[in-house]
């Protein structure tokens, strides 16, 4: 009954060889100044991906002997792990990172990011990036955005607008609205014709952006600074937010927003528009490139939410230089190249919203409209950021609140109460 | 004519219910396959449920090259196979001591192993991260192999111990009379007799490790070391998802596990029946 030992020995040898294979030599990433390790998480054919690929080419041309070791990362991987990676020797030299208090702000407070203030002034980034866009680049000692040290440089901006189906507008004889009243009148026309005017995703971020647009229609810059930067008290029963909650509920009642939107995800909101089932969708410029690529069966255009001077939007994700980066000088050089007009124009021509492009160099008329609107918005200091920014975890609170408004399961007053509590709690935890 | 047991209507109902269950199980896969071969414009115009207008394989091909999928397959295979082999070895040795050897305090030890197995991985991440960094194994596949060998063998020890605890004593005594030492008894008697169970453990360890996402995501920083599930994560954007490419990648990601399951399917059935034959 004693059988051969062979299988056991073979198994052990297999295991040993596999383990040996697994710990094969690592490439060394020393600080010799001949390698730039670069990470970002934009798709290769997105506007940023295209522009940054060209920036890498230009960098290699102007830095002979230096290789760029680029890795495309997943958004989720960076979101989950940035703190751990940047605290280790695996930190890259330059990487894309999310803006905001909970992301770049937190890392800056933990001392994981390099102070870029000197470079931003010396290389002129501070002049080319307008004050509203700078908000997300600078963080104070507590990691709160809006003032203090430069920790990141955005290459692009983003903002929420109305995308509309030109064919449906023409069929129902609706003109592009320029005032809030014209906007509601246009939606009434669609409702009368049995068409739901707005494609809304209530299960994710889109519905809260509509809610915030409505609040901003009654708000001024001081409100945004109170709400986003904690510069004074926010009254949740005040004119801005109560208008938003009441109007949103009213829009559901009038049929501008479908009752089933509460369960719709952003992706389905987008395909609802691309399939031509809805004449309008209110969402961000991050959809622009995809709409441009994928909408083939109707003509479409964009306009800013009528009547508003303030809109949800901000500078895009940031280039940051980890504190443990080994080749910081190369990282600054790379960021500098991404701010050059050629790269910025390429970003604009690829369907992105550059922060410092020369508008006359943007060839596609639709792209020019997109960038023009953004220019008007920043010139009027109209970027109001996003409603979920002020409080960690506020995103889910807002999703739930707006879903209640869609379902009619809570009154606007109750929803405002739901929104107020976590906000006030967070403020008291900050000692404000 | 001989009447079959369980009349025709019962058989039809059972068959019908099973068919519905199978269709329900397969529906998500069908949807994934459907969208994997659809062009993005087609998806945008006609939605996820529509049949593709024509076969569009570019999504799958692009994804393969974009993440260098072949490399990810090798990584996943190295990690999963190493873990499966090592965890089975450790489980056998532990279970031999606990189940056959009747070490004192074995119940407590088993409870300890079970608890270790129940700990959520999120709770382990920070300690493991700091340990790995201290010994210079952060961003290495070896770290993952060690961690998963420990995690999987905790379960393996628990399961095998209970199998070995009821191992026929007569066989052990006969082997001892033949002059076999403990080591020989383990490899020549205990392991061959319980081979079906061990094979099932091996298969499960392989598939479980293959499907792990969270710890590989944390520990494999460099792209050239990443495993298949982590590579699939590259596609999830901040606010956008790319439905067709995601489907293509899901199809590619699930295929190896299915192939592996089909290969070891016979082992699994045999293992499940092993107890019943005694």
From TrEMBL, chain A:
Pfam families: SBP_bac_8. It comes from Micromonospora pattaloongensis. InterPro entries: Bact_solute-bd_prot1, SBP. Keywords: Signal. This is Raffinose/stachyose/melibiose transport system substrate-binding protein. PANTHER family: ARABINOSE-BINDING PROTEIN-RELATED, DIACETYLCHITOBIOSE BINDING PROTEIN DASA. Residues 1-21 form the signal peptide.
TrEMBL record, chain B:
The chain crosses the membrane at residues 12-34, 73-96, 108-129, 141-164, 185-210, 246-264. It is found in: Cell membrane. Coiled coil: none annotated. CDD domains: TM_PBP2. InterPro entries: MetI-like, MetI-like_sf. It comes from the Bacteria. Residues 73-264 form the ABC transmembrane type-1 domain. Pfam families: BPD_transp_1 (PF00528). One of its GO terms (cellular component) is plasma membrane. The keyword Transmembrane helix applies. Keywords: Cell membrane, Membrane, Transmembrane, Transmembrane helix, Transport. Its main location: membrane. One of its GO terms (biological process) is transmembrane transport. It is a multi-pass membrane protein. SUPFAM superfamilies: MetI-like (SSF161098). Belongs to the binding-protein-dependent transport system permease family. This is Raffinose/stachyose/melibiose transport system permease protein.
